């Protein structure tokens, strides 16, 4: 192979950040730090609405309350749902599906430090969604809440994952999805990024919004309600020359490892101009604020025990 070809073959692809675990985590941490409010807004929503979600679930008497966390990460949001369940139920069971060992370890530490969470019966699955659904294909365990919080960008088969998650919801239970809204600067950027992703037959794309999820739900004829989490991210550093924080933020926004080193300079300019422009961001008090609001989709399983 010629030098240039070889380099092209080993260079990270646009849109492939999810395949580079170390860089992904680094970029995600920086992104979270810069999200004015994503964590807080999601936490507040779960604290306010979590008890209502638990109350909506129809659970037969003397049955433990079962929760399935898909792509739970370090479990900070899971903990809030579990606390709401513990307020109402004496026995809570929680199955966690998370492929990253470090995240599972952090989740376990969180449990160790929380007296109430220690009363939950946990089952840990260090697996991807596909590995987990294959393993549990003949498992009849049903869950009163199944949640996927900021996960569905990363699953290969979106429709398959939603179908399998719904299949594991108990009659009267809820499937709760939190995901980037289809009406944000971030979703505009995702649409824009499609043009730069190499067309090499790799179907997996992180550039997914709730529009894709709603399309699947409509096809499956599943009814849902939605709520919105308004979130802005301070991306000013992306435009400060030499800023390492800015470089990591750009990696996360474009979902491309080492974006500034690997993407053609002309394409970089087009993409960063777009990120800074009115389709994605506003400027306020000297800050560039990128809009990446999320939506919460709740599907209740009613009168359909066959699924
Ligand atoms: C953006 S993080 C969200 C973590 C957590 N739910 C939260 O909201 O803080 C996405 C999580 O999904 C996990 N993940 C990635 N691909 C996955 C897959 N195919 N199946 C299950 N989890 C996956 C990642 O390891 C990561 O912990």
Automatic annotation (TrEMBL):
UniProt-listed InterPro entries: SAM-dependent_MTases_sf
Protein's UniProt keywords contain Methyltransferase: yes
Pfam families: Methyltransf_23
GO BP term (any one): methylation
Keyword Transferase assigned: yes
MF terms in GO: methyltransferase activity
Keywords: Methyltransferase, Transferase
The protein's name in its UniProt record: HNMT protein
Annotated source species: Branchiostoma lanceolatum
């Amino acid at each position: 192979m010629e030098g240039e070809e070889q380099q092209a073959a080993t260079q990270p692809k646009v849109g492939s950040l999810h395949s580079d675990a170390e860089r992904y985590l680094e970029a995600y941490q920086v992104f979270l730090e810069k999200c004015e409010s994503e964590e807080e807004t999601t936490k507040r929503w779960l604290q306010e609405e979590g008890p209502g979600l638990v109350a909506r679930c129809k659970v037969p008497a003397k049955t433990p309350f079962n929760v399935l966390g898909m792509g739970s990460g370090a479990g900070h949001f899971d903990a809030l749902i579990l606390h709401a369940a513990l307020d109402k139920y004496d026995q809570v069971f929680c199955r966690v599906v998370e492929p990253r060992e470090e995240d599972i370890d952090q989740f376990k530490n969180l449990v160790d430090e929380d007296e109430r969470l220690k009363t939950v019966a946990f089952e840990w699955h260090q697996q991807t969604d596909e590995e987990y659904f294959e393993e549990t294909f003949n498992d009849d365990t049903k869950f009163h809440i199944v949640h996927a919080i900021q996960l569905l960008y990363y699953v290969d088969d979106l429709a398959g994952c939603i179908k399998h998650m719904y299949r594991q919801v108990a009659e009267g239970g809820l499937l709760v999805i939190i995901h980037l809204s289809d009406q944000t600067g971030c979703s505009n950027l995702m649409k824009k990024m499609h043009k730069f992703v190499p067309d090499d037959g790799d179907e997996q794309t992180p550039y997914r919004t709730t529009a894709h999820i709603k399309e699947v739900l409509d096809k499956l004829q599943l009814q849902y309600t939605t709520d919105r989490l308004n979130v802005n991210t301070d991306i000013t550093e992306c435009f400060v020359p030499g800023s390492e924080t800015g470089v990591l933020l750009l990696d996360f926004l474009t979902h491309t490892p080492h974006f500034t080193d690997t993407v053609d300079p002309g394409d970089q300019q087009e993409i960063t101009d777009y990120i800074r422009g009115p389709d994605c961001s506003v400027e306020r008090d000297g800050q560039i604020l990128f809009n990446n609001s999320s939506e919460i989709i709740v599907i209740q399983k009613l009168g359909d025990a066959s699924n």
